[in-house]
Specification:
By secondary structure, the protein is an alpha/beta fold. Strand 7, helix 9 and strand 8 form a beta-alpha-beta unit.
């Protein structure tokens, strides 16, 4: 069962909101309602969040993402639709029951820290427990443990104004963790921080998530942040969710031009993984051909090349015979310059791919061979605007020109002769 489930959520501000929802359901757009003095902040939003998942809602200012977040814990009542939390309909709860859910099971981390200046760091971290009515000794113990988790164990007696912005945000995160809530809602929690501190906080959150496995809904306007943190991402525009999927889904298959415009500046090498772009095992296994068979480029090895004379293999696309190809998964793993898990970012494959013509092996959870990433595949995946069906994860064969360009880029890193261009010219 999903931990959190949103069903057809609408939030309309202004006159006759119920009538506005009916108009939206009939096909009216946001601008038509605005002309009548009504604002549709969220329109027909539906999604599910699984236990232990970081679900990121990404959009520009005014897209409706913060309004959506506030409906998830009852701070705003939906005009229409339901929010189910562990199967319980939060929209049907009375005020008293809703406050109990918010104080015990849902915690929120705000953008601007929201610390009490007259309370110590420890007292701030323990505030949520104080609201719950937890005895002082117990809440101080749990708050101290949360501060330790967030790297602030030595700052318990300090005052908020003695801390940097990043440290203050860690106190806010510790306060949320101290309650041991099942769901964390984070509203632009890192956007007020300097870039380096912001990245440190992202690292901190990911590290904590590995240990605590919390369910998190994270709001941001920064796509790079969304791509880095989100197990799943919802992209919002004008109150609607226009695409919902993993970072790789959104990067490789943008739903429309609006989403495509966002991903232009994303560092693909940090988002795409070896598992997303690998070629299947079947493409590199098989029986060897007879000695003297044609080279894989369709032409025999050039006389005097290192491949023919038995010298060291050169980088770039090489004229190797089919007899040199590995036969088994063990052969592929032995020949590979590196063996990496499927979740490895492509940025970590540059070195192995540049230093060897053999493909990088991608392993499954048991350490077996799951697939391979060739240098041509790597650079094709990183090319801007890779089309669906020819890009990562499709198993499609790269065109010779694309392979030659990939080899040329790899050769530029190693200083080797760009042999691939010669072979394309001969093909």
């Amino acid at each position: 069962m999903s931990r959190l489930h949103a069903e057809h959520l609408y939030k309309v501000f202004g006159r006759r909101p119920d009538e506005a929802v009916r108009r939206l359901e009939a096909g009216a757009d946001r601008d038509e309602l605005r002309a009548d003095g009504t604002t549709a902040a969220v329109i027909d939003a539906s999604f599910s969040v699984e236990p232990g998942q970081i679900f990121v809602v990404m959009g520009l200012s005014g897209s409706g993402k913060s309004t959506l977040l506030r409906m998830l814990n009852g701070l705003l009542e939906p005009t229409s639709g339901r929010v189910l939390f562990d199967g319980q309909d939060l929209t049907a709860l009375g005020d008293r029951d809703l406050r109990r859910v918010r104080s015990h099971r849902i915690s929120m981390v705000f953008q601007h820290f929201a610390l009490f200046p007259h309370r110590s760091v420890l007292e701030n971290a323990a505030y949520g427990l104080e609201v719950q009515g937890v005895p002082r000794a117990e809440r101080e113990r749990r708050a101290g443990e949360a501060l330790e988790l967030c790297g602030l164990g030595g700052w318990a007696k300090s005052w908020p104004d003695e801390l940097s912005g990043g440290m203050q945000q860690r106190v806010g995160l510790a306060r949320a963790l101290a309650t041991d809530a099942d769901l964390l809602l984070m509203d632009e929690s890192f956007s007020a921080l300097d870039p380096l501190i912001r990245r440190d906080m992202q690292d901190q959150l990911l590290e904590l998530q590995k240990r605590l496995k919390k369910t998190i809904v994270f709001i941001t306007h920064d796509l790079n942040e969304a791509m880095r943190l989100g197990d799943r991402i919802a992209v919002m525009r004008d109150g609607r969710i226009v695409q919902l999927g993993s970072a790789e889904d959104i990067l490789v298959r943008p739903a429309n031009d609006y989403v495509a415009s966002f991903i232009q500046d994303v560092d693909r090498s940090r988002v795409l993984t070896a598992g997303a772009v690998m070629e299947p095992v079947e493409t590199v296994l098989g029986t060897p051909a007879e000695p003297g068979a044609p080279a894989e480029s369709g032409a025999p090895a050039e006389p005097g090349t290192p491949a023919e004379s038995g010298g060291p293999a050169r980088s770039g696309r090489q004229a190797r015979t089919a007899a040199d190809q590995p036969r088994t998964a063990a052969d592929v793993l032995a020949a590979a310059p590196a063996a990496v898990p499927a979740a490895t970012p492509l940025a970590e494959l540059f070195g192995p791919c540049a230093g060897s013509a053999a493909p990088v092996a991608v392993t499954d959870e048991a350490g077996g061979l799951a697939g391979v990433v060739t240098r041509a595949r790597l650079f094709a995946a990183l090319a801007d605007g890779a089309a669906p069906g020819t890009g990562p994860g499709t198993g499609a064969t790269t065109a010779p020109e694309a392979e030659a360009e990939a080899d040329a880029q790899a050769d530029a890193q190693t200083g080797a002769e760009p042999a691939g261009r010669k072979e394309v010219a001969r093909a």
